[in-house]
Amino acid sequence: MGMNKGTGRQAVALRGAPVILALLSCSWVWAQVPVAGVVPSSPTRVEESDLSVVYTGLWYPQHRSDLSGGSIVESPYPVSTASLTFTGTGVRWIGFKAAWGGIAQVYLDGALHAAVDKYPPTEQAQAVMYTATGLAAGPHTITIKVTGTWNPAGCCSWVVVDAFDVM
């Protein structure tokens, strides 16, 4: 099974970052500038707890010092998805490999790109589960979907989201 179970949570999407713009009259005004227009020059880590990660279904938060940012969310339920809309030319899904790890489907811009088996012979925190590079510069969405299935050598269908690296 997964790590110690807690209560489920869902996050809502939040876009934009508040900035102050100076006008020619030397007065200040608040404005929303969309983050989606910024293409990072080096990978930017987006933690699973960031409000830009949108969840459906039921996800359980866990906390350990060996996890990115000290926490993850995990789910064994096939109704569960985690999505991140980002602007860039690539993305990495960071997860956790374990005997209780299941199989997840990875969608990029709505199309199925991979089925990722999270079973390993030994546990691995902050594991790169999936990488997409060479995408056209611009907005994209990665979605991780729990399938409820697992490797015959494993035991369970838990899928972990630790973070995403946007490139």
Structural features, described:
The chain is mostly beta strands and 167 residues long. The protein is built from no helices and 14 strands. The chain has strands at 17-22, 28-33, 44-47, 53-56, 60-63, 71-75, 81-88, 91-97, 103-108, 111-117, 124-132, 138-149, 159-161, 163-166. The strands form 4 sheets. It has a 5-stranded antiparallel sheet with strand order 4-7-12-9-10, with no helix packed on it. The protein has a 4-stranded antiparallel sheet with strand order 3-14-8-11, with no helix packed on it.
Features:
167 residues; mainly beta; five-stranded antiparallel β-sheet; four-stranded antiparallel β-sheet; 0% helix; 51% strand; disordered N terminus
Query: Could you tell me the strand content as a percent range?
Result: over 45%
Derived structural class:
mainly beta
Q: Strand arrangement, largest sheet? A: 4-7-12-9-10
Largest sheet: 5 strands, antiparallel
- Rg value: 17 Å
Q: How many β-strands, per DSSP?
A: 14
Query: What is the 3D form?
Result: globular
N-to-C order of helices and strands? EEEEEEEEEEEEEE
Q: Count every helix, treating DSSP H or I runs of 4 or more residues as helices.
A: 0
**Spans of at least 5 consecutive residues with low confidence:** 3-40
The overall pLDDT average reads 82
Q: What is shown here, in short?
A:
The protein has 167 residues and is mostly beta strands. The chain has strands at residues 17-22, 28-33, 44-47, 53-56, 60-63, 71-75, 81-88, 91-97, 103-108, 111-117, 124-132, 138-149, 159-161, 163-166. The chain starts with 16 loop residues before the first strand and ends with a strand.
